[in-house]
Amino acid sequence: MALKPNNLSDNxxxxxxxxxxxxxxxxxxxxxxxxxxxxNTLFTAGHASAFIGGLYxxxxxYNKLKLHGDFGLGAPDKLDGELLILHGKxxxxxxxxxxxxxxxxxxxxxxxxxxxxxxxxxxxSVQMNKEKLYAYLDSVLPDQNGIYAIRVKGSxxxxxxxxxxxxxxxxxIPLAGMLxxxxxxNFGDVxxxxxxxxxxxxxxxxxxxxxxxxxxxxxxxxxxxxxDLLTDVISIEIDYLDSFTVDLPQxxxxxxxxxxxxxxxxxxxxxNGKE
Length: 275
Prior knowledge:
Blueprint: H1 10-26, H2 29-38, E1 41-45, H3 48-52, E2 60-61, H4 62-65, E3 71-75, E4 82-86, E5 89-93, E6 99-102, E7 107-108, E8 110-114, E9 120-124, H5 130-140, E10 147-163, E11 183-199, E12 210-217, E13 223-241, E14 243-247, H6 252-255, H7 264-272
Parallel strand pairs: 1-14
Antiparallel strand pairs: 1-8, 2-7, 3-4, 3-8, 4-5, 5-6, 9-13, 10-11, 10-13, 11-12, 12-13
């Protein structure tokens, strides 16, 4: 038992004791390792195949999502556009093209986030469309089974994005059946950020594997899911992740969802915006 010096008040002694305990805890190697692990983990709220299959009702709070990452992408409640998370702020792009920061009081049906820490940086002024950019990324990310968070920032000669309209009533149509309703947006000579991931094949199902990016303009007034682009001068920041975790909806719709159907083809259609 610690002895209290006579010249210390009770309150002052309690404060000193609390600070001592916190300092000891922070110095714990096990705790430091646990925190480092948590900051190097991809967190998925929801299930990608279920979302693609029509589970658009939000369930996971934004304020809880921010406890798992300050960087990422996802979808708003009832498919009302696209989400992007950058520097801990959440931005929504609606099918009208309007892009704006939203408070963390809402919920999402599907989102993927992590705490972004730069491990490597590549800079290039070679003009590349989406296909060539992905090929370039493949050349600098040789581990086919790695989990990568990727931020591409800089100038773009052109960018094409899309957003879906909000769904109104059930039963919801699977996302591949709504491609005719998606709205496209074209931007020329624009600066901004691509926020996204390259995820390996073994993560198929709960996540969208391969490349997946959303865009946010430098002035935060434009965004959406990337359909195509042409780069100018860009900087590519890579964060190597070493684990992932998935939070599954505890809802009747999820419990009754048909996971036997192979939706990999639908995922590719939705990613590329093509029927």
